[in-house]
Design goal:
With 294 residues, the chain is mainly α. It has 16 helices and no strands.
Length: 294
């Protein structure tokens, strides 16, 4: 995508058909065989980082150091060093360096004029990865207010939320009692059908109105979306130590990840456990037939 974006920026076409034909000719065949369009030190450094992200072991660090030697404005290089750091104090500074590098690489015009469209511009993505990394780092350090600020800024820059920021931000807002902001976020992504969103809606509604018809309807929708969540939120089932790395909507894996995110907020809400237990349909018992007498 970086190569395509550079190629289009350096080219001039009369119409869409001409552009598509040029793209087909320039980028057909195996991507490994396509010559890079990188010309500046920063572009060459970024190409090295794409290779570094796919590498393993020491090779990752070697490529990253080489990228930084080419350009100190390569934000992804600092991001990878932060991810690989063994010193607990190092990531915070590295992510801040990554953000500064990203701002230099993007330039003030794009930083000002493209708010709301950042992920759609390939050159802004290292900066967005740096901000996401910093937010996670601050959250792990229990600097929650600062983390929330970073997450909210990511959504300001990219409301399409290609990074899944809202799934982390909503539980933090609910956990810290920032219900007004949580409600606005829920409305902003009202069509989200994930378990975290539907159970987040239910909890928010219960906090605002108690066991109102609207709150009951929200909970009904949540249970319909994923029936496995209540057993984890109420402690009837233990959350496994090894969390799933993928899930499908409505699955037990999704339920585990939802419970991890919402558990603290749910427990901090008086009456929420009792409400959830009383509203969850009991699992029907299965009766085994006794063998008949001969």
């Amino acid at each position: 995508m970086s190569d395509v974006e550079r190629f289009m920026a350096e080219s001039s076409f009369q119409n869409v058909e001409e552009a598509n034909a040029a793209l087909q000719a320039r980028f057909s065949g195996s991507m490994d065989a396509v010559a890079s369009t990188a010309t500046t030190p920063l572009e060459q450094a970024q190409d090295l980082m794409y290779r570094a992200f796919d590498a393993r072991g020491r090779r990752r660090i070697q490529l990253t150091r080489k990228a930084l030697a080419l350009s100190p404005d390569c934000a992804d290089a600092y991001v990878l060093l932060a991810e690989e750091a063994t010193d607990a104090a190092a990531p915070l500074d590295l992510y801040r360096q990554a953000i500064a590098a990203g701002e230099r690489a993007i330039g003030p015009e794009i930083m000002r004029d493209e708010v709301g469209h950042f992920w759609g511009i390939v050159k802004t993505r290292p900066y967005m990865r740096a901000k996401m990394g910093l937010a996670h780092c601050l959250q792990e350090m229990n600097r929650i207010e600062e983390a929330i600020g970073q997450y909210q800024d990511l959504l300001r820059l990219n409301p399409n939320d290609n990074q899944g920021v809202r799934d982390v931000l909503l539980p933090l807002l609910l956990k810290t009692g920032r219900d007004t902001e949580a409600g606005a976020l829920l409305e902003q992504y009202a069509d989200d059908a994930s378990a975290t969103w539907t159970y987040g809606w239910a909890l928010w509604a219960f906090r605002q109105e108690g066991e109102s018809p609207a709150a009951r309807e929200r909970l009904r929708q949540a249970i319909k979306a994923n029936r496995h969540v209540p057993k984890y939120l109420t402690g009837k089932a233990e959350i496994p130590e090894l969390l799933p790395d993928s899930y499908s909507l409505g699955s037990a894996e999704e339920a585990v990840l939802c419970a991890v995110e919402l558990f603290d907020a749910w427990k901090a809400t008086p009456g929420a456990d009792r409400w959830l237990l009383s509203s969850t349909p009991a699992k029907p018992k299965t009766h085994r037939k006794k063998p008949g007498r001969r």
